[in-house]
Write a structure and sequence with these properties.
Elements: H1 2-16, H2 36-42, E1 53-62, H3 65-71, E2 83-93, E3 98-107, H4 110-123, E4 134-135, E5 144-151, E6 158-166, E7 169-177, H5 185-203
Antiparallel strand pairs: 1-2, 2-3, 3-7, 4-5, 5-6, 6-7
Helix pairs in contact: 2-5
Length: 214
């Protein structure tokens, strides 16, 4: 939990001053670079998140040196080449308690997003759920996907992180809770699927409308 809290807090503070397998029809389609406005709309809002309370309004920011260090916190900000926009939104759930961050990096091309995918998962995000986390199969979401679910805190608190590529975007969900069992594989998959669907809808030039209840 503690390891995840700092990440959500860092994202919020910046914004307020930022694997293979079969394809799914709902989360693959057009691969179009998104505008800043489209990134903001692709991020889930309170209406999309039944059972969750939005901590801060979804926000999209033009990528710059500050946000590259946030989105790609590895040597040389590797993985941010071609990145145009950074967006994030945070939520909390009361019972059972959990905190959740959605994050999007929008690239100028599908190739740039593809080149960044493994760099960022292997270099940073793949470790965010803790050393005892195990790989989680998300099913056919997007063009590439990885996930880990396990123990993230020093007292055994559960945590989960997913990373997906949908066309020209890289997407993350980062979740933490306080008690074992408060995060499960199905809920992690549901959150990741919704985010991937909303990104694809935006790339199709549609209004993102996927919700957690879909």
């Amino acid at each position: 939990m503690r390891k995840h809290r700092w990440h959500a807090a860092a994202v919020t503070a910046l914004l307020l001053t930022g694997c293979g397998g079969p394809e799914s029809d709902a989360t693959t389609g057009e691969a179009t670079p998104l505008t800043k406005d489209q990134v903001g709309r692709a991020l889930p809002d309170g209406e999309a998140m039944t059972g969750w309370e939005q901590s801060f309004e979804s926000t999209a920011i033009e990528m710059n040196e500050l946000y590259r260090s946030q989105a790609c916190p590895i040597k040389g900000n590797a993985g941010c080449g071609g990145a145009r926009f950074f967006g994030a939104s945070t939520f909390k759930r009361g019972e059972p308690f959990a905190s959740l961050t959605f994050q999007i990096v929008a690239y100028d091309s599908e190739q740039a997003a593809q080149d960044a995918y493994r760099v960022l998962w292997d270099g940073y995000y793949g470790t965010r759920a803790g050393q005892k986390a195990e790989p989680l199969d998300l099913g056919p979401i997007g063009d590439e996907r990885d996930a880990r679910l396990g123990t993230s805190g020093i007292d055994g608190e559960p945590g989960a992180v997913t990373q997906m590529r949908v066309g020209t975007t890289l997407l993350w969900t980062m979740e933490a809770a306080t008690r074992k069992g408060d995060i499960d594989a199905d809920s992690v998959q549901d959150l990741a699927t919704m985010l991937a669907q909303r990104s694809q809808q935006a790339q199709n030039s549609d209004e993102p409308s996927a919700t957690l209840n879909d």
